[in-house]
From TrEMBL:
Lineage summary: Bacteria, Pseudomonadati, Pseudomonadota, Alphaproteobacteria, Rhodobacterales
Designated gene of the protein: xylA
PROSITE patterns to which the protein is assigned, alphabetical: XYLOSE_ISOMERASE (PS51415)
Organism in which the protein naturally occurs: Tritonibacter multivorans
EC code(s) of this entry: 5.3.1.5
Protein name as it appears in the record: Xylose isomerase
Biological process, per Gene Ontology: D-xylose metabolic process
Cofactor notes: Binds 2 magnesium ions per subunit.
Reaction equation(s) it catalyzes: alpha-D-xylose = alpha-D-xylulofuranose
Annotated catalytic residues: H101, D104
GO molecular function: magnesium ion binding; xylose isomerase activity
Amino acid sequence: MSTGFFGDIAQIKYEGADSTNPMAFQHYNADEVIMGKTMAEHLRFAVAYWHSFAWEGGDPFGGQTFVRPWHPQDDMGRAKMKADVAFEMFDILNAPYFCWHDADIRPEQGNFADNLNTLNEITDYIGEKMDAVGTKLLWGTANMFSHRRWMGGASTNPDPDVFAFAAATVKSCMDATHKLGGENYVLWGGREGYETLLNTDMGSELDHMGRFLNMVVDYKHKIGFKGAILVEPKPQEPSKHQYDYDAATCIGFLRKYGLENEVKLNLEQGHAILAGHSFEHEIAVAASEGMLGSIDMNRNDYQSGWDTDQFPNNVPEVALAYYHILKAGGLNSGGTNFDAKVRRQSIDAEDLIASHIGGMDVCARGLKAAAAMLEDGGLEEALKARYAGWESAEAKGMLESDLASITDRVLNEGINPEPKSGRQEILENYVNRFV
């Protein structure tokens, strides 16, 4: 049933690369088979409830610019109206998944008991919408960064009562995610970090955070939740220093607290940039440790220097990301969540649809380019050639040797290597053939 919010926008169809229709897919053909799986199965697109429906258009220098029928978001009637509009959009886009924080879908009540009641009520309602539309839940999570109670952190808070409130909140969100058939559960430590070391006991905070995550894993097994537990790295914003800085930092944390076999990573393109990395770097780091879980797809404005959460529009960047995802065997239970928002001047309902069409098309183009590169094998051949010396028995044996023995060999054989080209420009030109 139409809510009227999207007017007469019909379900978006694939029309091909020659189409000039702004309300049609040019590249995302859900049923197209690539490397043995459909495009839909590879990409597993999800719509982010928070940016698309909960965000009101504010920024650090100005307030609300979106005036939606469900504003203000302060009672259950408007929460259900927001859900009606959300699922109408999921249907228009034929989006297979969506994601939420608890604070996106229910109004803040100011205390845990009432938050729990409204969360249970709205997730029952959302469950009915899911059955009617067919959109599934990729993951749920808890917002433990917006309300003032979280200003000093959640699991890392110096106040044990805040730790307790956080534990109860995460349990409720895990229960709701499990009830709705969610395929993963994410923890983003929005304020798990510090602003100054003058008032921070870092060792205690990290230990508390590690214990908290172990409790989450224990509860997952207790309730029989089969999805992955994911943590999401981010270097800054809102804390000056986040404990979950990047993929490598998170992996070190997980290993320290014995969680490396229980928890994987949800990686975001914008967060990678803030950490001084490329998105494909973060994906490759996680994949090398068997911890690649899911991705949040967006981009930052490279001139602004902060997390602008824009929809992706750079096919070469996206292609390299999916190249490493495909090399790692795909996203499994994860997916491509559009953790992206329209600009605060894009106030029309049509803008919400068009932004997702563009993002889905860019990802589709990137996926096809990535698959073509893998099938061509040019990059893999170049890698094999560059590291070919390590295939010899002598080179492999050196890794089992010691410094003194290696030194003797260098002296006896007169080893004096000449540098070899890394061929970077040639490889960059190769990639450009596909994108």
